Amino acid sequence: MFKLWCKKHLIIAASNIGGFGGPPTFPLNASLIMRLFSSNSEILGDQQKSFTVSYLINSCGLSPEAANVASKKVTLKSPEKTDLLLTLLRHHGLTDADITKMVTREPRILVAHPEKTVLPKLEFFHSIGMPPHDLALVTSRRPAILRCSLENRIIPFYDYLKNLLQSDEKVITVFKRATKRYLQVGLRQLLSNVAILKKYDVKESNILSLTVHHTGSLMMRSDELVKIVNRVIEFGIDVSKSIFVQAINVLHCTSKSTWEAKKKAYKKWGWSESDIHMAFSIHPVCMRLSEKKIMSIMEFCVNEMNCEAKAIASRPTVLLYSLEKRIMPRCQVVKLLIVKGLIKQSYNLLSLLAMTDKTFSERFIIKYNNVPRLLDVYHGKLSLRDLGVNSSELAKVKLL
Prior knowledge:
By secondary structure, this protein is an all-alpha fold. The chain has 23 helices and no strands. It is elongated and about 80 Å long. Among the domains are: 1-112, no CATH class; 321-400, no CATH class. 66% of the residues lie in helices and 0% in strands. InterPro entries: MTERF, MTERF_sf. Keywords: Transcription, Transcription regulation, Transcription termination, Transit peptide. This is Mitochondrial transcription termination factor, mTERF. One of its GO terms (molecular function) is nucleic acid binding.
């Protein structure tokens, strides 16, 4: 408004110089005055941007590149109020690194009113027992939460979650895992999706698990949730089983192209559509593994341990273990003991991998500690070929 007022009166002044309505006494051009005014405005704008970039770098820890990007989203005119905001955040446990992360993600947080807008949220989270490190995590990851309405969004959302989960600790976990969508759609979306799950007779324990452990999946669009639930049921997964929760999350987080890429990786080892269907219905997470992990574990189990590729489809949990830290060390130990005739070839691969470290050590390391270099094989320091075991002997060993 001030700029418009100035422009108006400069034009009037330019047209009236020289007397009361008479011709001007010298050729002062109105457009020249307008250019001068625009030039001054540009200078002021440049000064404000320069100050903003400088403040973002020196007070908020942003890099020059990040500060330049952030300055396009926020303009700071003076440091007083923003200094107060940063002091307030630090007083509530946020580190300089937290503040840098917060401002990078949401530069406009710097113009929020420290006492009227930000402080009430910080005090609320403190009142429900949110530890300082969790408060720092929530606000630095999702700074928009400090700008949304406490009365209309945060408190109603908290009240519903507290009634559903019966625990402030679990509610805090949800806030820690909440995506930006939680802040945008909030309680309305949660109520709608919980109602849908109940309509499908999903157990309350599964609804609670989705809420706490897979927060983002419970906040998808309702029409998308219906499609995914129906798809899970088509896989033959019982909605009353805990695996239902995993299946929902996997399907929600896996795009069509990624799903097809994982199928292609399994099919390279001879899996059919029904094999993939079976593996998913047993352990859905097998479709979240990287293609590299799938290929490396399948190659070791099939080519090194003589397992049948299709047999792994009925034991997909094998694919979830670490190849270097668990699968290879245990398989090499068992393979050596089989070659030496100390144990029979009746061990199930999944059973071997599912054992605790203590149980495996007791059954296969401590019990056969008289076998030379067995511990070195277990720790990956020696291969079986280093011990003189020939290929023909190794080829005879086969795990189920």
